[in-house]
Amino acid sequence: MVGSRGAGGFDRLRLGSTGYRTAAHATTPVAVIPPTAEDDVEDLLGLMVGVDGSRAAQRALRWAVDVSMTDVTRVIERGAPADVLVSRTGSGRLLVLGTHGRGAIGRMVFGSVSHQCLHHAAGPVVVVPYQGATV
Q1: Closest C-alpha among 34, 82, 67, 113 to residue 130
Q2: Does residue 37 come out as left (phi exceeding 0), alpha (psi in the -120 to 50 range) or beta?
Q3: What is the pTM of this model?
Q4: Which of 1, 19, 96, 123 could form a disulfide with 37 if both were Cys (CB 3.0 to 4.6 A apart)?
Q5: Could you tell me if 92 and 44 are in contact, meaning their C-beta atoms sit under 8 angstroms apart?
Q6: Domain 2-129 has CATH 3.40.50.12370
Q7: Rounded CA gap, 90 and 44, in Å?
Q8: Alpha helices in 1-135 (DSSP H)
Q9: Quick one: 119 exposed, middle or buried, by C-beta within 10 A (0-12, 13-18, 19+)?
């Protein structure tokens, strides 16, 4: 678990934050807590998992179910994935995402939902790395 100072603006996006770099390179799940969510961490109301059908998303869902040990409710929304997920962050919700591990070049060319959510979510985000393991 790492905190994020929330240093906004272009420099943060260009240089990256410690939280983002940690989540991008970790081999275990990493929680990044933005300064706006520090008080919410102890009173989490629930969690949500961004799922796109990939093995990385399946791994994140399995991690979330193991951690929460609660029933899963499926919600399907239209829109850009990062925008939809970010709009539901905050208010005591923990966002859990898998990462495909495309690396720096892949993120620059294709973008990354986890990258966007880490930079814009109002609440805590857990990134579960995909390491080629089967779920």
Answers
A1: 113
A2: alpha
A3: 0.77
A4: 123
A5: yes
A6: yes
A7: 10
A8: 10-15, 18-25, 55-68, 81-87, 103-110, 113-120
A9: buried
